[in-house]
Amino acid sequence: MKLHRVLLRASVPILALLCGACSGDVAPSPSSPITIQLDVRGMHCGGCVAAITAEAREVDGVESVEVSLERRAATLRVRDESTAAEVIRAIESLGYTVSRKPNQGDGAASPPAPPSVGG
Question: How many CB atoms are closer than 10 A to CB 59?
Answer without folding.
Answer: 20
